[in-house]
Design brief:
- The chain is of the alpha+beta class.
- The chain has three helices and six strands; from the N terminus they run ββββααββα.
- The strands form two sheets. Strands 4-3-5-6 form a four-stranded antiparallel beta sheet. Strands 1-2 form a two-stranded antiparallel ribbon.
- The longest helix is centred in the middle third of the chain and has 10 residues.
- The chain is globular.
Amino acid sequence: MSDHPTTYNAEPAQSGIAWDDRAEIHRKDDGQGVLDGAKGLYHGTFGEMVKLMMAMTPEERSHHVIQKLGDRMYDVGEIEALASGSDYPG
C-alpha cells in the first residue's frame, strides 16, 4: 500500500484515485485529536474501505467517514460519488 497525497504544491500529485492507499473508517463525530489513529473502526486499502462503506445501509453510512492516511477525510457524499465512478475497482 502506498500513501499518495491528493496534492503537492497545490497541484494534483497524480491522476486518478490511489485505491491502494491505506485508509480507515471512522465515526463522523469521533473528535479526531491526538489519539485519532486508535479511533479507526476498520482498516485497509482506500478501495476496500469504499466498498465496505457502500455495503452499509444509507443510515449507517451517514454516520461514518473515510480517512485516507497521508491525505484527508472523505464524507459520505464523496464516497458515494467515487463508488459510482467508472474507475472504481470495487
